[in-house]
Structure prediction request, 423 residues.
Amino acid sequence: MKVLIVGSGGREHAIAWSVAKSPKVDKIYCAPGNAGIAEYAECVEIGAMEFDRLTAFAKENAVDLTIVGMDDPLVGGIVDAFEAEGLRVFGPRKNAAILEGSKAFSKDLMKKYNIPTAAYENFTDAQAALNYLETAEYPIVLKADGLALGKGVLICNTLEEAQEGVKTIMLDKQFGTAGNIMVIEEFMTGREVSVLSFVDGKTIKTMTSAQDHKRAKDNDEGLNTGGMGTFSPSPFYTEEVDAFCRENIYQATVDAMAAEGRPFKGIIFFGLMLTEKGPRVLEYNARFGDPEAQVVLPRMKNDIIEVVEACVDGTLDQIDLQFEDNAAVCVVLASDGYPVAYEKGFPIHGLEAFKDRDGYYVFHAGTKFKDGEIVTNGGRVLGVTAKGKDLREARKNAYKAIDWIEFENKYHRNDIGKAIDEA
Prediction:
């Protein structure tokens, strides 16, 4: 098979690494890719939103299957564009990717189908939102409706902070058109857990659990980022929690989308909050998480191509999805100053230390080739993942492995997976 992967981050590197292990595949392309993905794939200079060029490339090169990693092209309708050309593609169509593309849509869906989530209201008028906040309880959460690179969520502890948040999202349009609609949501407390799943329109198979660390600095301080590290499995995701979610959240979401005439094929990422009243849905994503993919995929026993094709063909019920009985931790190496301002273009040293080391992986997020060497090319540069027999060993291994890599402006959190000590 020939496979095309669309995207350029650590998630797409993890997907490419998984695809490269499949005996079914003998050629991988990635558009646009990065320096790490180039180890497995031929990187093609086509942007993820250039649908016409991507479909033309897939046809010209007889690509058998395209896997879309990123949210923007999915929400923009890339799957519809590929299907219109008779091409096999993995991911939700535009009318199903709205599950991530519009927080107002997903909240309304959960309310309609009694899927547990936080109480909320949607607003299209800034003054109406400000009036509502006068009578609200605090803390409270403000969310830009559309895609905002994982940064469009503000937790406000006071009325003044919330008023400033409305200005940021709806008036100053800091997140662009994503802020045309704003969701105001009750603040939930508890443990956050991420559960990714494969879906074929009717059947859902969940992957192993994970937990992300969104804030830029230690102790969950600083600004929200795309993710500074993650671990899998979550010790807080118990069999009891799993049973509740299977009955009330996972299949219910798939059935709700089908009932709305928006059958979902692809990946549904469930962002959960484990509250005192039980699990609640924080958010949905319509693709692999990043960096969740970097800890979940290395633990998956299945051939990813077999699972993906079963989703495309509607035969997922025939797949026995299995994961290793171990743990994985990913620590993101970022450019100091991320997610605001940072320099790039610095040479990266030490990547060769990961060669032939079983259980250690380095996934490239923001890298490129320059003058024959690999240099930094983004805020999140690398995701260093290590496995272990349990979470403590995996964490120790991951933090050992980040010392193998050096580049100017290297920054990382020191407390990824620290929560496991409280389990």
Summary: The first helix runs from residue 10 to 20.
